Fold these 2 entries.
Entry 1:
Amino acid sequence: MTTDNGSTAIGLERLTENLQRVEALTQRLLAAVSHKKAVRPALQGPGHDLFTKAATAYVTEMMSNPSRMIEQQIAYWGQSLQHFVDSQSAPADRRFSDPMWNEHPYFNFIRQQYLLNTKAMETAVAQMDNLDTRERQKLDFFSRQIMDMFSPSNFLGTNPQALARAVETDGESLVRGLENLVRDIEANNGDLMVTLADQGAFDVGSNIAMTPGKVVFRNHLFELIQYSPTTQTVQEVPLVIFPPWINKFYIMDLRPENSLVKWIVEQGFTLFVVSWINPDASMRDTGVDTYIEDGFIAAIEQVKKFCDVPQVNATGYCIGGTTLSLTLALLAQRGDTSVKSATLFTTLTDFSDQGEMSVFLDDDFVDGIAAEVEENGILDKFFMSRTFSFLRSNDLIYGPAIRHYMMGETPPAFDLLYWNGDGTNLPGRMAIEYLRGLCQRNQFADGGFEVCGARLHLSDIGVPVCAVACETDHIAAWAQSYRGVQQMTGADRHFILAESGHVAGIINPPQRNKYGFYTQKSLVESPEDWQSSAAYTAGSWWPAWREWLMLHSGKSIEPRKPKSPKGLKLGNAPGRYVLK
């Protein structure tokens, strides 16, 4: 706060200048929003009719069981009055970490009343009758979304940090925040997508995705990268990794200190990684069969050819693991033994319980996706990004929005968040086949998934399998991943449960000593019983996986150096496709 006439005049002058900047930014904001493309109602968000049904159920409950509703309401009133008289202590919440939320009576009251309101809504939803399990799950999810959105930390007038920053900077922080907001809307054609990382801080191939290697094969679907050896000998059986084509492969090769690719090479494995193309409308008819035949099987054949071996070890990450599993089942039916062992990272093969993702897999939402891809040929990365963001809205939407738009901060130079924003599209036919046949109908685990002229079952998979799931994974719930592995029939089925989530649990280099993992020798009946009897090991699971992989990798031989096919110069890693 200013204390003398001179400094007060300077402060007023700065405030006036900032107000003029706000006026110009407002015009840009209006122009940017006017370019927003209309989104079909079904893709605005699933469950539009759910709250109407929930409201009806609530009224019905009031009529049939008024005593319970009155009891809930009186309890809520009593807690509110008690809170006003003597504020209660509240559990830790990162949104309210600033000391002002506790020390200032006004902000302390708002914080605790908000938490009290949230608890009341959770109780009301949990005790509501006349809803089936699926509807209750959806209502719980969207109720939490509403409560997260209305957190007092999300609004300038009730965020002490943002108010203090605005006073300290004479409004400069708010103007910078508005500049950030306008820039994000302009960059996304009128839609608001919060930028999570500094877009100018990273350059793929220069300061991320730097592990040396060469592109040794390219077709219409993928580039195959072979990485340069760094050890005096390598294992005879090469390893090929299939990342998801929902994202780009370099999540496994961000920086040298957290690169899984670099670490694998340093362990003495000949490593190949598939880099998928970013689909456009010309690929509308690319289906799951295309990815299996022209992607997985083609890559396996190329690796066998380059290394002059009859078998490879294969790894699939997320949807890459799901499709690798389909490929293994198909190869088994064909009598093809090209894959010696398979590793599955955060992979679902049994979709009987999709966890939090289930709210986006009902017909209302999937029908909207079907109409979208029929019109445009692809499912634009915008929809996938927004869907996954809402699964962790406080971390991926509201928290960054507060920092960038209210505090005026520049997005951080964070490699993982940069990768998270570098999304890809999905081919139209493939997206619908995956959502309908696997996610909705669970055909791979129940009845068989028809593709490539065969009906594939989980029980077809008999090769040695190591599955790595993550304890707090919000995309591929670990218990469901476990149930899928149980239905495979190989004698060697190894399950590793890593701490943390879908990405951080996998990209967990040993030198960080950050997250541990659980293992045990057998697969018991329930995943919960498995975890309760499993042995816990501190530190990264990578060395444990190496030990398992070594059992299936043959003898030590001279290192294989990557070479471009005769007459072709396909370039160095990370290749061309990753830049599209």
Entry 2:
Amino acid sequence: MKRLVLSTLASGLLLAACTPADEADTDAAPAPETTAETTDAGQSAPSEDTGVSSAAIAEADMRRMISTLADDEFEGRAPATPGGIAASQWIADEMARIGLEPGYEGSYFQPVPLLEVTLDESTSSFDISHNGEPLGLTTNEDVVFWTKRAAGEVSLDSSDLVFVGYGVVAPEYGWNDYEGVDVEGKTVVMLVNDPGYADPDSGLFNGNAMTYYGRWTYKYEEAARQGAAGVILIHQTAPASYGWNVVSGSWTGAQLDLAREPGEGTFAAVESWVTEDVARQLFDLSGLDFDTLTAAASQADFEAVPMEGLTASATLHNSTRTLDSRNVVGVVPGTTRPDEYVIYTAHWDHIGIRDVAEGEDGIYNGAVDNATGTAAILEIGEAFMANPPERSVMILAVTAEESGLLGSAYYGENPIVPFSQTVGGINIDAMLPTGRSRDIIVVGHGASELEEVLESVASEQDRYIVPDPNPEAGYFYRSDHISLAKHGVPMLYADGGEDLREGGTEAGQAAGEDYRANRYHGPADEYSADWPMDGMIENVELFYEVGSRLANSDDWPNWYEGNEFRALRDEQRSE
């Protein structure tokens, strides 16, 4: 769920990392031995070699941590597997060795309960009827469907279809696609992305740069809040920024979500995607013009349109089970304002083990994705321990990112520190081992005042920041920082760019393309002692210094005016 910052977007190559959710395998071999005992409170006891915290971002430390996390011993670090449990324990051991205080009720572990739902496609169905005659949609070819309700059976019975444009309610933009229409019990049909994408010169939303309202996650959530029984997203490759193969590959098989108590969470009974070809057929059958209405949907005076004669019916049979995973959290206490926090996030999980032919490598080690980020936040935590800051610093390694940002989402719903006391944060996700770059790519550029701190620090490294070259893809909303951003906390998501000091943009693009083509989300994403580390080390130093300036000041950065999260932050700061 992330964007590989280095070069891949600039070269127009879309990663499968943009996928809405990547299924994590839950079958693994017996657990490897961990490196320290676990106390009754669930916190890791320090190893014998406690060492001394160092203020330097050390290459030797980074190599040791990356190579360990990416070792076959941890079996690809899938959540709730023996390998994942052992990996999270090892991270806690490192936090204890460094001297970080346990961050959650005396423990390094914040429990994250997960729910796995698997649709039985052989006994489940989804179809749309025109005047009572089913169209005969083919599962995975024409439609992909599922439910987030924790139930063995969920159904939808002749639910009327309503086209609601982009399915957005955005008060700060004066936009409400549901105004004047009652969708209770109905199935809403909507477009991907937001109105700014359709007409970037109109001044609507954030122009060509996707806002949070363009994300599929938001659209399903809003439809449920409006009382819809079913939700249909129309897939179009350009505004989605991924093909139908990504949809059919991401929402089939076992799906993970957060486990919730009965009554918690609001979900439509059935969530789904259909192809653009199917959507055009539906519009024709209801006497509507697809191109005319999709163009109208980007206009401020758009009104929802009933799709006369069309109804959706579905029966879903599911098997469910609960799984236990955990975020790993340590704290560097502040010396003068310990109740104010700067937060660093990175996901520790990866895909795990896949069934492969005998003799093939089935372990998805996730060295770049995201042993690098996890090692970085641990090394940053050690640097802060050697230079205690005025404000507290939280080091948060989250679980289940590859399953839909679930560990960070759980933290967002169950924050350890109130958001009103969280100054801001930095997310580190998948750093490529390259030489030093002249540029730093900021994903979601123009979002918050954190960028001004970044730019200041970057200039001291003789570097410059550049915007994400493909903002319409909405990569800012596809990594763990968004789980805090959507609660108002300013978050920074950046990495070294493609303009390498040795080799320039050609070398930078080649490095990104090589990783995307040959290692990303594959068993070849492994650590090598041949990795060049100078670029990665310089980036980690950069992120440490940005956080240090926040942690040793009384500044409270905010989102820029017009940002969709600004109102939340303003409300927090007024409390």
